[in-house]
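A.,

Following up on our hallway conversation. Structure tokens first:
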């Protein structure tokens, strides 16, 4: 309305035209700049959920790289118990480039999809009775690195990030978010997440700790971090697939013994023909089971399909980068990945995007994971040094594994923890829920706890939400598991 009035004034009063033109230009410039500043909205209703949301949900964008126009999208759910005193957790998802929405609906967040056969209508949502936001923490779910979920860059070069650069962008995000939400600065703060996020979480935490030591404002009240089925060292993690597969009966004694005899402990890069032949035979057997949980059926929809170029409707602000042209294949309803299929449908509905306040024209087809679409530099070969630095500086650490995960076997995570050479203060034992063993745990000095979730897969809390809830609550309350 104001711009229309200004335009009419310019036409009626020619002497004022030059000044009015300058003012109009400044207004447009301010409008453009406001798009790259932090912007948030309180969401009270979501498509597919009946009635008003019973929790406080905020979504928004935070600019983290001005030159590239990089905007990270987030979801914030406030604790339903005591938001002024409960911890704040930044919960990240793996991939790299799986959406933070995964944490909100598949792990520790307040909603789940209703598992019903898809009939063409919008998938329905229900509350998650094991949401950490009920009585444990307020939680931030972040689409990071850029290219995940609804995060985007105006300059295509902005997608060229890696372990270090994306971690620094997360720290920039947190500084800006806390500046906009100063009431949470005194709350205990933790960084948590699973899978590939487990590799960058210690990097992010170390950058935060360095900022605390240098008294850089705002000072984030970091207390520790949590990583589930974490990628720590890609070569070590991959090599432990072989002894794990032998231990659970996927490969025979003879094949395992041949691998030990011919591969010199390296089951990733064979250096001789005998090792190569053995590993090919092992790979054929491993292909018969689901990597995420060896007890699951092999299903469609777990992996991200490859991108295609030049598809109508797929080009957005991503410039020369293209998004996926179609949704992943539909798995059967008994598959764990069926809920991923429902999320793809729900997120690509216009009413959903309008409700979440997604900026038009920034994202084409939303997919759960964009692992192969954009360049990503895995420039930290191992994060074990970051674990050592943080724990010896006094930060608490919880490392947990689903014991049915073939992607990052718990054997690998155990070995990397043992390489820290910390003293055991509470030896290996079961931890319980409802009178039954929920998993097993061991505690080291320097406040490092390792735990398994019995029956859990690669995203352990997604498979065992009740056990994950109990584990998180006890650990955050400084109680033994």
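Then the amino acids I'd put at each of the 481 positions:
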């Amino acid at each position: 309305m104001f711009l229309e009035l200004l335009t009419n004034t310019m036409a009626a009063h020619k002497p004022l035209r030059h000044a009015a033109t300058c003012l109009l230009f400044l207004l447009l410039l301010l409008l453009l700049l406001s798009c790259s500043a932090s912007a948030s909205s309180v969401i009270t209703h979501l498509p597919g959920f009946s009635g008003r949301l019973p929790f406080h949900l905020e979504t928004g964008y935070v600019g983290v790289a001005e030159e590239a126009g990089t905007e990270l999208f987030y979801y914030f759910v406030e604790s339903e118990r005591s938001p002024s005193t409960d911890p704040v957790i930044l919960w990240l998802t793996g991939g790299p480039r799986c959406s933070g929405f995964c944490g909100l609906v598949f792990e520790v967040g307040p909603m789940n999809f209703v598992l019903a056969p898809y009939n063409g209508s919008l998938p329905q949502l229900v509350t998650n009775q094991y949401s950490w936001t009920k009585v444990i923490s307020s939680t931030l779910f972040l689409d990071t690195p850029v290219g995940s979920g609804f995060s985007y860059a105006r300059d295509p070069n902005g997608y060229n990030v890696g372990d270090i650069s994306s971690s620094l962008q997360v720290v920039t995000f947190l500084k800006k978010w806390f500046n906009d939400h100063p009431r949470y600065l005194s709350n205990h703060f933790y960084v948590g997440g699973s899978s590939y996020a487990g590799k960058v979480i210690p990097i992010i935490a170390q950058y935060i700790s360095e900022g605390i030591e240098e008294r850089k404002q705002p000072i984030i009240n970091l207390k520790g971090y949590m990583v589930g089925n974490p990628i720590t060292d890609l070569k070590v993690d991959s090599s432990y697939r072989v002894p794990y597969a032998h231990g659970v009966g996927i490969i025979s004694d003879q094949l395992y013994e041949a691998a030990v005899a011919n591969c010199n402990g390296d089951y990733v890069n064979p250096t001789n023909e005998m090792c190569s032949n053995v590993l090919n035979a092992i790979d054929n057997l491993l292909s018969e089971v689901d990597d995420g949980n060896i007890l699951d059926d092999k299903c469609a929809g777990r992996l991200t399909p490859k991108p295609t170029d030049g598809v109508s409707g797929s080009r957005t602000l991503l410039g020369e980068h293209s998004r996926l042209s179609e949704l992943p294949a539909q798995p059967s309803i008994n598959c764990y990945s069926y809920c991923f299929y429902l999320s793809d449908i729900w997120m690509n509905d216009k009413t959903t995007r309008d409700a979440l306040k997604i900026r038009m024209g920034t994202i084409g087809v939303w997919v759960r994971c964009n692992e192969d679409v954009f360049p990503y530099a895995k420039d930290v070969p191992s994060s074990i040094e970051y674990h050592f630095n943080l724990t010896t500086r006094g930060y608490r650490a919880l490392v947990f594994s689903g014991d049915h995960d073939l992607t990052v076997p718990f054997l690998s995570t155990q070995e990397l923890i043992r390489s820290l050479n910390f003293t055991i203060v509470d030896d290996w034992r079961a931890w319980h829920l409802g009178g039954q063993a929920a998993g097993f745990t061991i505690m080291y000095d320097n406040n490092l706890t390792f735990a398994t979730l019995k029956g859990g897969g690669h995203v352990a809390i997604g498979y065992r939400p009740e056990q994950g809830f109990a584990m998180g609550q006890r650990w955050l309350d400084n109680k033994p598991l």
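The two ends are 60 Å apart (CA to CA). Curious whether your intuition agrees with the design.

B.
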